[in-house]
Amino acid sequence: MTSVMEARRVLVVGAGAVGLSAAIQLQRRGFAVTVIEESAPGAGASYGNSGMLVADTAIPTFQPGMIWKVPGWLADPLGPLTVKARYLPQALPWLWRYLKSGTRRQVFHAAEALRALHRSTFEGWLDNVGHDAMSRLTRRDGQVYLWEGMKAPPARGLEDEVRTHLGIESEMLGADRVRQYFPGISRDVSHGLLVPGNGHTVDPHGLVNSLAEAFLREGEGTLLRERVMRAWRAEDGRWSVMTNLGSHCGDALVVAAGAWSGRLLAPLGVAIPLETERGYHVMLRNPSVRLGMPILNKTRYFGVSSMSDGLRVSGTVEIAGLDAPPTLARAKILVTQAKRLFPDLAFEEQAYWMGHRPSIPDGLPAIGEVHGKPGLFACFGHGHSGLTAAPASGQLLAQLVAGERPAIDPAPYSPARFS
Ligand SMILES: Cc1cc2nc3c(=O)[nH]c(=O)nc-3n(C[C@H](O)[C@H](O)[C@H](O)COP(=O)(O)OP(=O)(O)OC[C@H]3O[C@@H](n4cnc5c(N)ncnc54)[C@H](O)[C@@H]3O)c2cc1C
């Protein structure tokens, strides 16, 4: 690990939950931080996610035996996964690595590493945005996983083993208890699992905006609205970026550009396997249903959360790259799923969104200095849980840049694991 303790100016590319969490932590360590964001803060994946702050969830998305479920998912028009045929050749190496990660060993390895990033999410967000924003925007009110049409409770499986191993509290619910929590829910729902330690934000974009405001309020941080087009290391060892509006120079460069990070790193010869798992949401305005806590439907793989401006139904994984236009049908599926789950659901209007989950096939983000590139740091690849993992990831990144002893073991996230 190379310390750049002497570095004073740090450039951070990307003002999503992750980049801004890193920026504020760097700033608190005395660095002059310039965040460069091509859009508005929090306008990437951090904008439209399900808002779940899953302190007590640490299971990666892959599972042993998953490969056998894939054909069924792909064949089902309402299924949780789709791969655009034209993009398949490009995605194949990533998909293969992802499916190969579905071993018991890798599930436990990833779960332990995710646990280290997730468990302190509420404390981390509080530390970063302060009491006012936290009490306005977040609720630690639990989360319920749901299963449909099962005669007996879901068999104790690997997820339960992981929860027991990590000391995570949960409670199995019968259909009656589920209906008490969620009046009006479909009779198809047979079981639930309450995870009381989880929670959510009622406004993910608002939460990330609070982080941007805290960053600007607390120090001399700069937030530039520019698109980084190229990065390079100058002869004096400093890092420069060329943007659509000029160029900037720093002692260290942090790439936190979510799913777009690979595009900035590839010209530097850095190959970290990163793919976009495109996800969708639909916002149902003035809904007749208001949830006391968010739902994750484990039979049909989608989430439902009550937000300050309506009911958000989100999910689906679409492998189609960064450039293909959104597939409206994928978003519309979510309306169908919501109406199935709450048969009497009424709402006034619906708004669709698509975003890019930045995903690495071993289920873990890349956080740390890039092998052989002193001063170049990665902080991306948080997949399905980057809103949750952002505070701990930002803190770890800042500790590594500052040459401090990290609060958590950085090894599982090292970008060097792909070298
Ligand atoms: C449907 C869906 C549901 C989800 N639900 C949850 C959930 O409930 N809980 C949870 O914890 N996570 C959830 N996630 C995952 C979470 O949203 C992401 O992991 C997280 O937002 C990633 O944050 P980020 O800062 O790395 O990326 P982003 O938020 O995508 O930020 C990257 C930023 O970099 C900028 N950028 C890119 N390239 C450049 C460039 N060249 N120059 C300048 N700027 C650039 C982009 O404009 C963007 O703002 C969900 C994701 C999706 C899609």
Descriptive notes:
- The protein has helices at 17-28, 45-48, 70-75, 88-100, 104-118, 121-129, 131-137, 158-166, 175-181, 204-218, 261-265, 328-341, 386-402, and strands at 9-13, 32-36, 52-53, 81-83, 138-139, 143-148, 171-174, 189-195, 199-201, 222-224, 228-233, 239-243, 246-250, 252-255, 275-285, 295-297, 302-307, 310-319, 349-359, 366-369, 376-380.
- The chain is 32% helix and 26% strand.
- Helix 6 packs across helix 13 (386-402).
- 49% of the residues are buried.
- A hairpin with a 6-residue loop joins strand 20 (366-369) and strand 21 (376-380).
- It has 419 residues and is an alpha/beta fold.
- Among the domains are: 9-46 and 206-271 and 362-418, FAD/NAD(P)-binding domain (3-Layer(bba) Sandwich), CATH 3.50.50.60; 143-191, no CATH class.
- The strands form four sheets. Strands 4, 6, 7, 8, 15, 16, 17, 18 and 19 form a nine-stranded mixed sheet that branches. The protein has a six-stranded mixed sheet with strand order 10-2-1-14-21-20.
- Residues 1-5 have low confidence and may be disordered.
- It starts with 8 loop residues before the first strand and ends in a 17-residue tail after the last helix.
- The chain binds flavin-adenine dinucleotide.
- The site of flavin-adenine dinucleotide has 40 residues, from helix 1, helix 2, strand 15, strand 19 and helix 13.
- The site of flavin-adenine dinucleotide (FAD) has 40 residues, from helix 1, helix 2, strand 15, strand 19 and helix 13.
